[in-house]
Design brief:
With 359 residues, the protein is an alpha+beta fold. It has helices at residues 10-21, 51-56, 72-79, 88-94, 97-106, 120-130, 157-163, 220-236, 270-273, 278-286, 312-316, 346-358; strands at residues 2-6, 25-30, 42-45, 62-65, 114-117, 134-138, 148-151, 169-173, 179-187, 193-195, 199-204, 207-213, 241-250, 253-260, 300-306, 321-325, 335-342. Strands 9, 10, 11, 12, 13, 14, 15, 16 and 17 form a 9-stranded antiparallel sheet that branches. It has a 4-stranded parallel sheet with strand order 3-2-1-4, with helices on both faces. It is globular. It binds adenosine monophosphate (AMP). Adenosine monophosphate binds at residues 112, 135, 142-143, 145, 172, 174-175, 180, 203, 206, 246, 257-258.
Amino acid sequence: MKVAILGGGQLARMMAMSGHRLGVETWVVDPKPDAPAAAVAHHVLGALDDPESWRAIADCEVATAELDHAPPEALTWLARRMPVRPGADAFAVAGDRLREKLLFRELGIATTAFAPVGSRGELEHAISQVGVPAVLKTRHEGYDGRGQRMIRAPEEASQAWQELGGEPSLLEGLVPFDREVSILAVRGPDGEVRFWSPVANHHEGGILRHSRPLAPGAEPDLEQAGQQAVAKVLEALDYVGVLAVEFFEVGGELMANEFACRVHNSGHWTEEGAETSQFENHVRAILGLPLGSTGWLGPTAMVNLIGSLPPREALLSLPNARVHLYGKTPAPGRKLGHVTLRASDDEGLDAALARLSRG
Ligand code: AMP
């Protein structure tokens, strides 16, 4: 079985490693010679929008991507030769923050107040609709807090607009959330859906720092509401593969922020904390193989290693921890690896997290 992945970052690397255990061969397309997945998969060294790269993966059985902004022309070309899962529609929506919000609205899923902004003049209008404080976000290619500026007062609008380069954007009301939660699900080509436990996420500077799944049944209302919303998105896009929807929780209610049509950082814990990881279930789903159980194995937390790495000895001496390093050169804000901690109860997990943050 041969799978092609557009993008060769750590997500592709972990999918390739999971696929390998199932006898699946992976081809990744990435323009960087040192792409993290290149060490564990066949590497097509080329641009994602170069037909030469597409031809190199033309005999794979199925194609997927590890990024939301996969070039549409690549997806169209590949879709004439093999299933592309999830489909081009999912990428078109997930790669555009405005279309994402419009889809949530159309499906009756609560989301933040928002207004499209195509020009400096429209920004004034958007501010009068949405109010301040608000966040101006570019529609395309923003992630990990990039492509976003906070507007606390109308006078800050000009600067924010200029700093984002005057690109097509949207203005979102700033949500005074109590918690950030994501829900990950996998859907097979036959429509079977499985959910992992909801995950509580902590971000700093727009970047995910750590994730902690809730114990099954710990918050049944939240779990049910979140799963209903995710199921609607899966159905609407006739989705195949892993989908991650990020929510703000405010006063016990969920508001959808965005979704990723791929495996997601807030699902990395599943490798140690669930019966089947998001990476393996994505590979299974896109190949039409039976899905694995998403059952929870016990208290788990995932901590990202960002910007620089602690000394290897310290990392490897952590008890009840699995260390994942992506083979990337350190740089500020860059995700270099993650650690998954396990414990027999929540107190043990708190203690392990405190130990890790003390270094
Ligand atoms: P995003 O790229 O939309 O996931 O934003 C990254 C992070 O910025 C989120 O996880 C939040 O912590 C914060 N953020 C983004 N949009 C909003 C918003 N409308 N209200 C409050 N916080 C936000």
